[in-house]
Design goal:
alpha/beta; 49% helix; globular
Length: 910
């Protein structure tokens, strides 16, 4: 793409495997070459969303520069020859690479959060942030303090205690967790979501006393509407009976006719107030009589009265359903509002600023100034912006970047060129809506979504429109032709209407020479003509999927594939764990989320138990783990484990000290880090070096930098976040990988096995709703949208359903496009995806079909399924860390008491 193009705001629509990162790195290098010998790389800012993506982008840029410098990438070299000849490009790239490596900190590739973090730190005064603030990226740390603070007030603050009790009773009625702390943390996650922060502002002036009054008022109104509905339905039933009419005389009679509908409501059966099709037929189309009706004249005489009663009921249903939905969640919102106030107090007291709050402060600042000076300042350095994975940006993040983007587009590079913004993304891979990602922003470019008639936003939008150009990357360089063609045909055939614009360019071009791949579907039909029940699905996951996955892996091994070539993608963490356990039991090595968690590592469990023991020597679980570890290390008989656990502390220690020099009293004066180091030395855990232990020490070090450290506070912190602490996937391990689809985004694998899930759209969803003055005293509520279907907010429920459908569609697209050579799907009759796959394969003349009567499955295959041609697995050349150097800090300290007036501390360096 020549530098002198007229357009400077360019979007790259890059489908899966289309070389998005390749093109990003290429354009980065192109700009550097065009302005050589200037160090223009210092003027480029590349933004993405994860630290992993940052490292990948940096690695790709440096690798390409190295390859070009040594003329090892002929394709890329040819694509840049419009700038200079090959020798000159090679010379320039070598020099640019050397400059970057010698000034590596000037290579500006960062996450969007770290960019806003730098802005918040650099312009703290302008953003009204304390100068000595601590920016917190982990919301769980603040949330734990908030919940602890709130629970500490129970029994002292009567209103708060009442709200918590009501909240607990509601959760028990809904058969939710009885663990009140866990439930408070669940709703407390809203504290740092962009949407919630905005809405909580409108609630901050409502105190608990006012909430109590509002709840009482809403409950009274709901009961009034309920009585109106019930009374009117009873009146309709009386009219029917007084005229000698039986319910069987109405259209569809007792199978859902209007007479039965009135009776059901009159008996307070409000489980489903929605009118069925038979009731609507009577009201809207005058279908009143059953085929055997002998009371047509009587029905005609009262039909207009029944219509009136129906209308009265409908008029009362809307507010009744709304107030019922509000009462379901109002205790949660009242507590959330209180937690928000507690969080503000904690942050002011400890001078903490969460990254979401910093983002909000920047947003408030940039929306009121045409060219905010904070961007003017950094705009002096950056003339080019690259934004990767744009479909995952939130509304707030994009609005915050807009002034920076438009400032760059207005900045002059030379007489003929201005700065540039390049945006890379794919709407079909937008699967992070739950984190605030707004795919509509990418679809609408260059227009700005939610500009709210803001004149400043409209001016920025005009700047984007004037400079806009779009480039479609539609060549797939990742997958074999057979897989590309399958995805082209399948997604073209089964795209719902609301997603047509997103998948308009889903077809990709393949390399006709890159053949030999295959796509397979194993489809569970169950008993012919019968739809599987929920129990069938459950058994399917536990039995068929596991057995089929095992069978596929065994086939692949026979075709020269290695374990490391195979990745299994799943939607549920529970299913990941179950499948991992099953494969391990059957001798198949596995790398999964759980296998990489520090909390699952035996050494880490032992170290944590030692810390628990140091906190309380009477802790029986900690004692058991320590005894079990010692016995296994020393290969001792384990029959007396329980007896040792319940013995006195002196006897317990005596047993441990027979084998290891474990003296807890000597460890009490060290800090947390030194205690763990001491434990590693005592129990000889520092050789060989264990990546899990090293990661554990790193987490302790990070925790100590941010917190006033006590062992108990760290143990609580660990318990809260243990599901997040893991090591990176080890490279070179010959094992099958099992991961979630979300983790797989941006990755590619030779073979993908995808056990297709049952539809996920039945989960309840809660969203913030503007009540539009329908409720006195409160105008914003966090509501279960499934309860709004018979209210004036039904459109919100319908929109959410479409968005969830799109989430599922995109997740399946990501799963189907990870494979390079083989894609295996396993599906079940009755699920939408499975049925669509079955229908697709049935109509493929070239599909091979095999039926397994015993398992009630049918297997289809498309493609060649050629054996792997590469050499067998060999370990990656690596230098292992054989030991972890750890020295007792006390051995480094010498106390010199030779001078009576002054005690000198000297470090022994020998």
């Amino acid at each position: 793409m020549p530098e002198n193009t007229q357009k400077s705001f360019i979007t790259y629509q890059a489908s899966a495997g289309a070389g998005k990162t390749y093109n990003l790195a290429k354009e980065f290098i192109r700009i550097c070459l065009l302005h050589y010998p200037k160090n223009v790389y210092k003027n480029i800012l590349a933004i993405t969303f994860t630290n992993k993506a940052v490292e990948e982008m940096k690695e790709r840029i440096l690798r390409f520069l190295n390859e070009l410098a040594n003329k090892k990438n002929n394709i890329l070299l040819q694509q840049l020859t419009d700038i200079a000849d090959e020798d000159e490009i090679s010379r320039r790239c070598g020099d640019i690479l050397s400059r970057i490596l010698h000034n590596y900190s000037d290579l500006s590739v960062c996450t969007i959060d770290s960019l806003f973090q730098k802005l918040a730190q650099s312009f703290a005064v302008d953003l009204h942030i304390p100068l000595d603030h601590r920016l917190e990226l982990d919301s769980s740390t603040i949330l734990q303090m908030v919940v602890d603070n709130l629970l500490a007030q129970l029994g002292y603050d009567n209103l708060l205690t009442e709200r918590v009790l009501n909240f607990s009773f509601y959760k028990m009625e809904e058969e939710k967790s009885w663990n009140i702390e866990r439930e408070l943390k669940a709703i407390g996650k809203q504290l740092h979501s962009e949407e919630a922060i905005e809405h909580l502002k409108h609630l901050k002036n409502i105190d608990l006393q006012q909430f109590t009054q509002i709840i009482a008022q809403i409950f009274a109104q709901k009961e009034q509407y309920k009585n109106n509905i019930q009374q009117t339905a009873q009146e309709a039933c009386n009219i029917i009976k007084n005229n000698g009419i039986e319910y069987e005389d109405f259209f569809r009679g007792k199978k859902g006719g209007i007479g039965c509908w009135f009776e059901k409501i009159s008996k307070e059966n409000f489980s489903n107030l929605e009118s069925n099709t038979y009731v609507l037929k009577a009201i809207n189309e005058n279908f009143w009589y059953s085929n055997s009706c002998k009371k047509k004249a009587e029905i005609d005489a009262i039909s207009h009265i029944l219509e009136e009663k129906y209308a009265i009921i409908q008029k009362n249903i809307e507010p009744y359903c709304l107030f019922s939905a509000i009462l379901k969640n109002i205790h949660s919102v009242a507590l959330l509002n209180e937690m928000s106030k507690i969080a503000e107090d904690i942050k002011q007291r400890d001078k903490i600023v969460h990254i979401s709050e910093a983002t909000m402060r920047i947003a408030e600042f940039v929306e009121t100034e045409y060219i905010p000076f904070i961007y003017e300042r950094i705009g002096e350095r950056y003339k080019y912006i690259f934004i990767d994975e744009f479909q995952d940006t939130s509304t707030l993040q994009w609005h915050n970047l807009l002034p920076f983007v438009t400032e760059v587009l207005s900045s002059a590079i030379d007489e003929n060129n201005t700065g540039k913004t390049l945006i890379f993304g794919d709407a079909k891979q937008a699967i992070y809506r739950f984190r605030g990602g707004n795919v509509q922003q990418f679809i609408n470019l260059p227009h700005i979504t939610d500009n709210q008639d803001n004149s400043i936003l409209k001016e920025r939008e005009q700047k984007l429109i004037e400079n806009y150009d779009n480039i479609l990357l539609d060549n797939n360089f990742r997958s074999k032709s057979e897989i590309i063609n399958f995805n082209n045909q399948f997604f073209k055939q089964f795209i719902p209407g609301f997603a047509k614009n997103i998948y308009a360019n889903c077809e990709q071009k393949d390399n006709p020479k890159n053949t030999g791949g295959g796509v397979s579907l194993t489809f569970y039909e169950g008993n012919k003509g019968q739809k599987p029940t929920q129990k069938d699905y459950k058994n399917l996951y536990k039995n068929l999927y596991k057995l089929e996955v095992k069978s596929i892996i065994e086939q692949l091994l026979q075709q020269n594939y290695d374990y490391q070539d195979i990745t299994i993608l799943m939607r549920s963490n529970n299913h990941i764990r179950e499948l991992a356990e099953f494969l391990l039991e059957n001798g198949i090595p596995v790398i999964s989320n759980d296998s990489l968690l520090l909390d699952k590592n035996l050494k880490i469990i032992f170290l944590l138990s030692c810390l628990e023991y140091l906190e309380s020597s009477l802790n029986p679980i900690a004692r058991y783990v320590i005894i079990d570890f010692v016995m296994k290390q020393k290969e001792l008989p384990q029959e007396q484990q329980y007896e040792l656990v319940i013995k006195s502390n002196a006897d317990f220690l005596q047993f441990i000290q027979q084998h290891y020099p474990f003296y807890p009293q000597k460890m009490l004066f060290g800090n947390l880090y030194s205690q763990v180091e001491h434990l590693l030395q005592i129990f000889q855990l520092n050789e060989p070096a264990d990546p899990f232990v090293l990661s554990f020490l790193e987490i302790i070090s990070s925790f100590m930098q941010k917190n006033e450290v006590q062992n108990r506070s760290f143990l609580d912190f660990w318990e809260e976040g243990k599901d997040k602490f893991s090591i990176s996937s080890p490279k070179g391990s010959n094992a099958v990988t099992i991961m979630s689809i979300h983790k797989s985004k941006g990755l590619e694998f030779p073979v993908v096995i995808y056990p297709c899930p049952k539809d996920y759209n039945n989960h309840s969803v809660e969203k913030w709703v503007n009540l539009e003055n329908k409720v006195e005293g409160i105008n914003y509520m966090y509501l279960n949208i499934n309860l709004l279907k018979q209210t004036s907010f039904a459109h919100i429920a319908e929109k959410e359903k479409q968005e969830k459908d799109l989430d599922e569609l995109n997740a399946n697209y990501v799963a189907f496009t990870r494979a390079k050579e083989r894609l295996y799907c396993i599906a079940c009759k009755g699920g939408e995806l499975g049925d669509n796959l079955n229908s697709f394969f049935k109509n493929q003349p070239s599909a091979k079909c095999t039926e397994n009567i015993e398992n009630q499955t049918i297997t289809y295959s498309l493609g060649a399924f050629e054996n792997k041609k590469s050499s067998p697995f060999s370990e990656i050349n690596s230098i292992p860390i054989t030991h972890f150097t750890s020295t007792d800090i006390r051995s480094k300290i010498h106390v010199d008491l030779s001078q009576s007036e002054e005690i000198q501390l000297k470090l022994r360096l020998n």
